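FAQ: What does the model actually see?

It sees only this:
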Amino acid sequence: MSIDEQVLPYPIPNDAALDPPPEWAELRGTCPVAHVELPSGDRARLLTRYDDVKLVLADPRFTRQLTAPDAARLTTDGGVFNSEMAQFIPDGGEGHQHWRRLVGKWFTAKRMAALRPGMAQIADDLIDDLIERGAPGDLRAGLGFPLPVYVICDMLGVPAADRDRFSYWSDTLLNLTRYSKEEIEAAQLAFFEYMSGHVAAKRERPGDDLLSELIAAGGAEDGGLTDMQILVTGMALLVAGHETTANMIGKMVAMLLADRSRWERLLADPSLIRTTVEESLRLDANSGFGLPRYLPVEAEVGGTVLPKGTTVVCSMAAANRDENAFEAADRFDQTRSPNAHLSFGAGAHSCLGQALARTELQVVLEVLLRRLPGLELAVPVAELERVEGLAVGGLRTLPVRW
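And it is asked to produce this:
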């Protein structure tokens, strides 16, 4: 049976930690709007071509209303895409733009530049701890995971000492197949109660942080956000602000060490750090689920008419390897510029925190190259293991020596 006649399991199974499943290239070539079965057993359509993914992510007809009665459920146990909480942040139009303007003030290039020295200090301190514990060490646990958590906790004014709880709550919200419905509901309730208490405390004693500023902007009637929107924004940023970047730090360093000539090139020419970060983001073959969208009207994509009620999954990672969008798309080119990858999405819903993620990834590379120039993988690439069962992709561990 040819691939365009099959219903593929999704996410497409893949053992290789850093390489894409072979089906991606085949789908882009012959079946750009594929039939897939989600972990829930429900059916959806998968997009793998660059132009199609970019179009859908920017097209307001494709909504985030994944709780609609006829929308495909990603899982039977709930999680971030099917959460009722997501409904408190406006899905589109002026309401969504208003929310982005209020929150986006904290993610400007100017503010990121101001955060850089503090990020570099955190990275230096974490590497001190790594060196003290001795090689080999786990770069994911020692640097990749804690650094973005410290940064986002600081931005939200929440204690970094609670980071193990945040990690568990994030994982349950990003669940595909790892946690039960009971575990997810209990974790979401605990997370909600924690953030409610935190927002209430900020109301009493404001600080120099994002949540205090959102509270100071007043309620919805004053041009600000409702209490529930502030609370859900805090939860969303805590999850998004550490999980994806923490995983990306590990994957980026693994990609550079898997072919160590890439690392050597950066040592010789650190001015390539920025373009290397972008190319790592583009070639990340283990980015997780992708972005689901729900279609409340009929629409055409990639020459296929999709009926009203279709759920579409956009694979940005597959689209980022489209030969029609990138020359030598499968080659890791550390000088590639411009690099219009879709790793942060596109259009009105593109990732709000992309300047923060880029800054963290650049700073981590700067500090690692300076502190641990002899860094290398402590296991063969084939032994690196993927994170399984969550909507985000990553490596379970990244064993390194120096």
